[in-house]
Design brief:
Layout (H helix, E strand, L loop, with lengths): L7 H9 L7 H9 L3 H8 L5 H4 L8 H19 L3 H27 L17 H10 L9 H15 L2 H22 L3 H24 L4 H4 L11 H5 L9 H4 L6 H4 L8 H21 L9 H25 L4 H7 L6
Helix pairs in contact: 2-3, 5-16, 6-7, 6-9, 8-9, 9-10, 10-15, 15-16
Length: about 350
């Protein structure tokens, strides 16, 4: 990896791009808007205006949100010394696209229709290339271990028709490849950020499986190795009441996220609250780099802020379209810049 000193220009450029981050005032005005049209009017006064003009109708705001995030990724790639750092952030979108294409293939074989509308352009590889690779059955140029994984998963589907197992294996591969790429960048903070993302996904899976009342003996297969907290330690939580999880992991930085847990009947709302806290937990791992003028980890910090902004914008617009109250939406928002 390039020396930290070479990131002085990168950090300076990203600090200049902080004017593309929506501040608390913009979010407050969107929350105060009477309806979706009013929230879009507020958003049109920000950097999103360039993309909103391309919307075919008010409900097509997802394209504008993705376009802004994609712009930031492309701009950052132009001046970051190690493009692999941006590739690391974009990798989950490549795996999302592979999941979409595999599911579409399975649906098509059973008489269903393809869902290419769910593909995103935020990955490292274009959707067109992935489509061509799968349709031609030429997997040789697929990145991130997908060259060998995709044909194996297709064969598994033919034999077992178990989509959950296929998704599990793809998630395992994703985190393994992210850790591998982070290790090549030779920065402890970058590795810790990836490990924190694995922790967050493991806790999400624990909660989802608990809601589904999956037997403890099956849960281990859905947890991913490589996190800051070992799989064995997380498995020890399965027999404990939810409100004790934070205490049992008090030695970790996950305590704040797990403080949301309590035995309540509304499990769906509980998971939403914890998901929000987990996103903030991932941010905190690199948050201290905001004070550094040369830290490569600042790239992760800025891009994760932009990812959280995209989530927040989508939460508000979807909520306004469905008549959700301002207080409910405010409670769902992730970290918001000052």
């Amino acid at each position: 990896m390039a020396q930290a000193e070479s990131y002085g220009y990168t950090v300076a450029r990203l600090r200049a791009m902080e004017n593309r981050l929506l501040d608390s005032g913009a979010f407050q005005r969107m929350l105060d808007a009477e309806d979706l049209q009013g929230a879009l009017k507020v958003l049109n006064e920000t950097c999103y205006s360039s993309w909103l003009v391309e919307m075919k109708n008010e409900g097509a705001f997802d394209g504008a949100i993705e376009a802004e995030l994609n712009y930031v990724y492309r701009e950052t790639e132009q001046f970051v010394p190690d493009k692999a750092l941006v590739a690391l952030c974009k990798m989950p979108y490549d795996f999302h696209n592979i999941k979409v294409l595999l599911k579409s293939s399975f649906l098509q074989k059973s008489g269903g229709s393809r869902r290419w509308d769910l593909l995103t352009r935020l990955g490292n590889v274009t959707p067109e290339f992935l489509i061509e690779s799968l349709e031609s059955e030429d997997y040789r140029l697929l990145p991130f271990g997908l060259r060998s994984a995709v044909p194996q998963l297709l064969a598994q589907w033919e034999q077992f028709h178990d989509i959950l197992e296929i998704e599990r294996q793809l998630d395992d591969l994703l985190f393994s490849e992210m850790l591998k790429l982070a290790a090549k960048l030779e920065r402890k903070g970058i590795v810790e950020w990836v490990r924190g993302r694995i922790d967050a996904e493991n806790v999400r899976n624990l909660l989802r499986l608990r809601r589904m009342q999956v037997e403890n003996s099956r849960i281990a297969g859905f947890l991913h190795d490589g996190g800051i907290i070992s799989v064995e330690r997380l498995l020890s939580l399965t027999g404990e009441p939810l409100e004790s999880w934070g205490r049992l992991l008090a030695y970790t930085d996950l305590t704040g996220a797990l403080s949301q847990l309590q035995e309540i009947s509304d499990f769906d709302r509980l998971i939403v609250d914890v998901e929000k806290a987990l996103d903030d937990y991932v941010l905190r791992i690199v948050e201290q780099t905001r004070f550094s003028s040369t830290s490569p980890e600042y790239v992760l910090y800025y891009l994760w802020l932009k990812e959280m902004e995209a989530k927040n914008v989508r939460i508000i617009l979807v909520g306004k379209a469905n008549g959700a109250s301002r207080d409910v939406l405010r409670g769902l928002l992730r970290h918001v810049s000052g």
